[in-house]
Amino acid sequence: MELKYSHxxxxxxxxxxxxxxxxxxxxxxxLLAEVKVKKKTFLMQxxxxxxxxxxxxxxxxxxxxxxxxxxxxxxxxxxxxYWTGDMASFITKEPSRYFIKATEDSELLGISRANYELLxxxxxxxxxxxxxxxxxxxxxxxxxxxxxISLTAEERYIEFKRKYPxxxxxxxxxxxxxxxxxxxxxxxKIISKVNRM
Amino acid sequence: MELKYSHxxxxxxxxxxxxxxxxxxxxxxxLLAEVKVKKKTFLMQxxxxxxxxxxxxxxxxxxxxxxxxxxxxxxxxxxxxYWTGDMASFITKEPSRYFIKATEDSELLGISRANYELLxxxxxxxxxxxxxxxxxxxxxxxxxxxxxISLTAEERYIEFKRKYPxxxxxxxxxxxxxxxxxxxxxxxKIISKVNRM
DNA sequence: TAAAAGTCTTAAACTAGTTCATTTTTTTTC
DNA sequence: GAAAAAAAATGAACTAGTTTAAGACTTTTA
Lengths: 197, 197
Hints:
2 copies of one chain form a homodimer. Chain A has 197 residues and is α+β, with helices and mostly antiparallel strands. Chain A is built from 9 helices and 8 strands. A 4-stranded antiparallel beta sheet of chain A has the order 1-8-3-6. Chain A has a 4-stranded antiparallel beta sheet with strand order 2-7-4-5. The first copy, chain A, binds a DNA duplex (30 and 30 nucleotides) through α9.
């Protein structure tokens, strides 16, 4: 049975942590919705209750909040083979504080809350998959929440460049500033300084 | 069957997400090690490969790294009913970069890596427990890594006070500064300013 | 393909947070 | 319970990052 590219990508991703039979793969795929988002349009907006968790098969999106002064703070850039969404809202059913906007034409696979719950009933192995997925994300976030506090903006920029060389040339400097946590003006200074070194 | 207080505490904690039979409770408890740490002594130190994940039944501990200049950065305070350890090292078997030191005489229940893996084999329900536990921690960390970047030190202090009123009066101002991400001197200024308001 | 909108750069004046040094207060230890 | 050690307060000089403003460069859109 031939899988289309996007399904192959998600099955490979899941396959890193658990083994699925052909039947289970079919079942899993049947629970996923295909979503396309054009560049500069929203996958979701603050105020909505998140109905899906997403896996990106193509493109790039930014996940961000706006603070009281309307200044954006980007919490992640999501590209191919990444999972994204607002887990807090997805789980608690409270309105999200996040916007997710495509920075390139993008394609995603979404799982609804109903199907997410069904998945654990039908294929309990997925408890293990998500246990490990969340464990790994947690390790990343713990590291990142320390970086945020203990490194200077310049160090955070160098670290981002080293860790995500494939993402840095797909995003604007302004968005990078909103991720690093500084003004676009100061980002510009840092970049010209680092390039001069 | 009467459980001792510490075991009752951990069984209640687990019971929030999954239901265990009496036999499963006994089995689970048999996989836990009891650990005591005196105030100002280490539960673990950087360089070690973490062998346990811990649940605190009594006391308070701080989890921290030292940066290149030897300045401590506290990533969490763990009190009764909290889970702690260095998950990155526990999972990857790489040396930890964290110290965990008791700030009060403390008592913990630890699960070794071998028993952690055994647990999933013997009581697969625990995949669900950890899936939900990690999911919730993740939600907290995502929130916190945004706070770190988007709030001022004064706002982070007010937020900590509001969220952890039970922890704030058990720790020193110096440790709080190392958690908030500022110098003890500036922490002192913020506190006297906020109290004057 | 021209005009409009958004992004990037540079610079001067400003503010949040640091550093260093000293004194007072609290906690620990024998 | 006195002496020693650690934590907290205060202040002056400093630095990383912000704000505001203006001009140059790039991308988007009609």
